[in-house]
Write a structure and sequence with these properties.
alpha+beta, Phosphorylase Kinase, domain 1, D-amino Acid Aminotransferase, Chain A, domain 1, 2 domains, 7-stranded antiparallel sheet, binds thymidine-5'-phosphate
Length: 247
């Protein structure tokens, strides 16, 4: 594997996701992730462009991935290049999304008939098959292994790391008077190892203000609870201690 390029040149668009684009660089081992302002929900059925969302998410993700890496979880993130662009190791994404839940909410509440807001006695790890065509259906580890999406050791590694990430993020948000209700992670393979890939942002997390239960995450958009741009700018202030200013 080559060292991260010092001045990566943004090349061909390799992949366009709902909230990010992935570009090749001159080095096949490294890619540039570009954070868009787009917000989508319900597998793209609901869409909007939210000004400042891309750079705020990029900045929060870089910060949280840095904390997680410092806590011993290897990540694909290398460094920030510009407000929207970040350098990442190129990985092969494992098509198994890992969700960690501390509090009952969202699809877990719905499918199990439990009210949102109940703290779980310990974190619950869930798996979803990463497939837009199938709407990311829930799966278990056996299905992932037998259908060839991930090896047993990879799932064990992903689970352990997701729980470590949960410890780090729970403490981080708790210090800011916020409960980390749940979040989704994606992992990738590079040189035979598993790395935490993708982002950690309020798009893929549920963050509830303590005491009020106010949503400080993408549920504001999914559930029409207010202005997502205002929510993300507020989160910027909470995380960095200063109001967001476009660079
Ligand atoms: P869920 O309760 O809808 O299953 O969501 C669990 C967590 O995963 C929540 O923090 C939001 C995040 N998530 C994504 O990042 N992408 C998705 O497509 C969905 C449905 C949820």
């Amino acid at each position: 594997m080559s060292n991260a390029p010092l001045h990566p040149v943004v090349g061909e668009l390799l992949y366009e996701g709902k909230a990010k684009q992935v570009y090749a660089t001159e080095d096949a081992d490294w890619v540039v992730m570009r954070f868009k302002d787009d917000a989508t929900a319900f597998n793209g059925l609901k869409k909007a462009s939210i000004s400042d969302k891309g750079p705020i998410n990029a900045k929060i993700s870089a910060h949280l991935l840095g904390l997680v890496a410092a806590a011993g979880v290897p990540t694909a993130f290398a460094r920030t290049l510009s407000p929207r662009d970040q350098l990442f190791r190129r990985v092969e994404i494992v098509p198994v999304e890992v969700v960690v839940r501390n509090v009952v909410a969202g699809s877990f509440a719905k499918k199990l008939g439990r009210p949102e807001g109940e703290w779980l006695a310990r974190p619950v790890v869930e798996h979803f098959y990463k497939s837009d065509a199938l709407n990311d259906p829930p799966i278990n580890e056996d299905a992932a292994i037998v259908l060839g999406w991930a090896a047993a050791w990879e799932l064990a590694c992903m689970r352990e790391r997701a729980l470590r990430v949960n410890e780090v993020l729970l403490a981080f948000w708790a210090e800011r008077n916020i409960d980390l209700v749940d979040f989704k992670l994606e992992f990738g393979r590079a040189d035979g190892a598993i790395l935490l890939a993708d982002e950690i942002t309020p798009d893929g997390s549920r963050l509830w203000e303590r005491g009020t239960g106010r949503h400080l995450d993408k549920d504001v958009f999914r559930r029409d609870l207010g202005d997502l741009g205002d929510t993300y700018r507020e989160l910027h202030t909470i995380v960095f201690g200063t109001a967001y200013r476009a660079e």
